[in-house]
Amino acid sequence: MAGGGLMWLAAALAVAGILLLRASWARPVRSTPLNLCAWLALLAAAIVGGVEAGAWGMAVTALVATGAAMLLLAKAVFEQPRWKRPAKQPREVDGSGNDPKTGLSRGIVTFLLAGPIALAVSTLFALAARIALIATGASEADGNVAVLGLVPLVWPILAFALLMFERRKTQFLVTGAVAIATLLPVVLVGGQA
Amino acid sequence: MSFAFAKDTVRKGLDAHSAIGLVCCALLYLICATGTAVVLYEEWQRFEQPDAPEMTSIAPAAVQQGIENVLAAESDRDTTTHLYVHMPTEALPRTTITTDTQAFHVDADGAIVVPEENAWAEFLLALHYRLNLPAVYGMTLVGAFGAMIVALSISGIVAHPRIFRDAFRLRARRRDDVATVDWHNRLAVWSLPFALAIALTGAMIGLFYVSGGSMAASAYGGDSEAAIAPIFGAEAEADLTPAPVADAVPALTYMAREYPDVTPYYVILHDPRTAGQHVQIVGEHERRLIFGEYYAFGPQGEFHGTAGMADGTVGQQLAASTYNLHFGNYGGLPVKIAYIVFGLALTVVVATGTFIWLNKRARQGRPAPRLAAAWWGIVYGVPVALVATFIARLAIGNTAPFVALFWSVLALTIGVALLRKRNSGTRAAEPVLVPAE
């Protein structure tokens, strides 16, 4: 790892932050001051890394913090459990109320909604965001990168949100609302903002 | 102060987490496992062809000599539309010249030494990048799975209210379901920043056919190159009138003089031996996430400018950072080792996630022994199939049928696992006992 003195400071702060979290979270009752110190150390690590070497510095600092946490986990692997609870017997279920046909068709519709349909809606959202960005003065490059970056971000969020709705009607309503709201600028402006 | 989701939200979150995980688990496991292995892409290439000439640097005149030698070697066919000179780097200290149809290693004087033979590394990369499918389908599929890692990360946090509180609690030595759950949750929570970074960057790369294609269709008359030109720069107008080959020497000399802190690692000749030819140099910037900057030169080395990867708009710099952030090649071997460790962690998270679901089914009195056997087959099968292809590379050579071998061995491993389950009778189908919570 090539880096100046500040990068080493960022790495040290990252490790200190993880160690403080470990100390705080190991207590029966969490210590707010310790927690605060830990998160502040991690925040300071990110800032120092960012100041020293921008995004590269922040990325390397994040790797150091994650590595420190993994080392603490590795230590936990070799610790003996303090007790072992008795095993629970498996439950017997009669399987009533589970109609495989209904389950399959529901599953297919859910898959289509959260999968390809949500992807299409997310793409429309990203294209609308591009139009809005360029219209408000962003460069064409930034607008285009926003499309490339927003699709993989909005799609999983929308898919998860749809899966959280139990009623099919709500799923369709949310999908339709986002689609219509984003389709309008795409159709009206045609992307040539 | 404490923040917690409502019980009902947690239940729905867990259902969503399970649903996404189950739909994605098999290919996601394959993508994570191959992604971990492909971090060592350059190292695999060196291992595959240890006798290729290596050097720490190469003189501009030798680069030009190499270009002319390779073009002369291809005088019996149409001139290549693009010619790439890979300059020696720390990870891959070789000079390799690639045309539209083949690639050669050249020595420090630019003389052709041996054809490039890295079919296994290329197979591994293609398996990770596009599951050995045509790019448009394979990359889109892999990109979709990257997006689903993001969905799994969000749903995982919602579904596990104690996931941060128990972040250091790993009861690995219990060797039961609790250990499986602990492995899954602990590795997931600590690899979360890494997972989000590689998932988002991977999805951004993989979903280009959807996002870039839609953008091209809506704003650029279907021209994808025009859609990315504002980001990465546009190709110059072609003029196919024959001309002497461009000279890379003044371009490389200019780089050494004007940009001494930038390390050129690719010289690209566009439309060589035509009047429209031009030279592009990709230069690495120390301690940056960007893959490099494009430096454009005319055929005689006249500097035309940069594309803006290093100092252009935020979007350009962000787009240029996705590749290195995804593949972990921005900090030498230490960063690569970190990526391998975290990549393995992510692979274990995917594997254990499905085992948790299978164990839960068994606890509920609905064991799925065939499904469990098939999942074991996949978990074992992917590394076994990868090793089999690697052995084939060593035994047969560069022309071994890696794709057919990989998928055959994987199918065989799953088949054997299912067969063993059938032969073992009811004993193995019994549900796993779990400690009472």
From the structure above, extract its key features.
heterodimer, A: 193 residues, mainly alpha, 5 helices, 78% helix, B: 437 residues, alpha+beta, 8-stranded antiparallel beta sheet, globular, disordered C terminus
Q: How would you describe the overall organization of this protein?
A:
The complex is a heterodimer of chains A (193) and B (437). Chain A has five helices and one strand; from the N terminus they run H-H-E-H-H-H. Chain A has helices at residues 5-25, 32-77, 100-135, 140-164, 168-189; one strand spanning 87-88. In chain A, helix 1 (5-25) packs across helix 2, helix 3 runs antiparallel to helix 4 and helix 3 runs parallel beside helix 5 (168-189). The radius of gyration of chain A is 25 Å and the shape is flat. Chain A starts with a helix and ends with a helix. Chain B has 437 residues and is an alpha+beta fold. Chain B is built from 14 helices and nine strands. Chain B has helices at 7-38, 41-48, 60-73, 119-130, 135-159, 177-190, 192-206, 208-219, 224-232, 249-258, 314-327, 332-363, 369-395, 402-423; strands at 82-86, 95-98, 103-106, 112-115, 262-270, 278-285, 293-297, 303-306, 434-435. In chain B, a hairpin with a 4-residue loop joins strand 2 (95-98) and strand 3 (103-106). Classes of the chains: A mainly alpha (193), B alpha+beta (437). Chains A and B meet through helix 1, helix 2, strand 1, helix 3 and helix 4 of A and helix 1, helix 5, helix 6, helix 7 and helix 8 of B. Strand 1 (87-88) of chain A pairs antiparallel with strand 9 of chain B.
Please give the structural blueprint.
The complex is a heterodimer of chains A (193) and B (437).
Chain A: H1 5-25, H2 32-77, E1 87-88, H3 100-135, H4 140-164, H5 168-189
Helix pairs in contact in A: 1-2, 3-4, 3-5
Chain B: H1 7-38, H2 41-48, H3 60-73, E1 82-86, E2 95-98, E3 103-106, E4 112-115, H4 119-130, H5 135-159, H6 177-190, H7 192-206, H8 208-219, H9 224-232, H10 249-258, E5 262-270, E6 278-285, E7 293-297, E8 303-306, H11 314-327, H12 332-363, H13 369-395, H14 402-423, E9 434-435
Antiparallel strand pairs in B: 1-2, 1-5, 2-3, 3-4, 5-6, 6-7, 7-8
Helix pairs in contact in B: 1-4, 1-5, 1-12, 1-13, 2-4, 3-10, 5-7, 6-7, 6-12, 7-11, 8-9, 12-13, 13-14
